[in-house]
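Hi V.,

You were right to ask for the full record rather than a summary. Here it is.
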Amino acid sequence: MKGIISLVLVCFMLHFNLLNAQNSYSTEELIEHTLEIYGADPLLSSGILYYPDHQIAHGHPWLLTEDWQTGTIYASGREYINQEIKYDLISNGLILRTLYNSSNYAEIVLNQSVVDSCKNGTVTFINGKYIPSGPIEMHFPGICTLNGDTIITGYNKRYLPTYYDAPPYGKYTTTSRSVFLLKNGEYTDITRRRDLLSQFSDRRKEIKKSIKRSGRRYESLSPSEILQIIHSVNQIKQ
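Predicted structure:
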């Protein structure tokens, strides 16, 4: 209930700033409406409103794109389909956008203790508490599995407050990716092509051929595509 009340109060302050006096709800109406939307839903009622830092910096803090992506969230045994979500890599938060009245959106930082996993396009993010602790610092790292093999993917970017010629308000770096093969509770770094080749030193030629057939650089392959290569190599070894 404490979380709900806090969210109600923050929503009220946000609403007060957005609307002028003649169009705004009364306090009672806004609280009643917010409780109606958020109070019965543990996914929303346990979250807090999202306030991005460095809003005028060059670039953005998001995983891949500034656009909202439609995905599915799994939380507290429930499935939430067709949700608008993004991942803020700077604050390490999964952000949900939802209507809090008929015309205004609220952006909510989802509670890590409530969300189990999230599927956004072809990428599935899993709560870090469900996998062995390792080198990835994301609260929700990417996960991909195939025939008993598992890849855990971490993404990272930084905000640079200093600048050279431009921009004057700092900038965000591009997104970097770290790829790890998870087996028997241990993480093996396969971020670079040579890392993967070193794990299959007796099948280097086959791996190189598989990468070449893809027509792309190894670093641009998705975790699913990397697992397909690993699977094909494992079949050869058998």
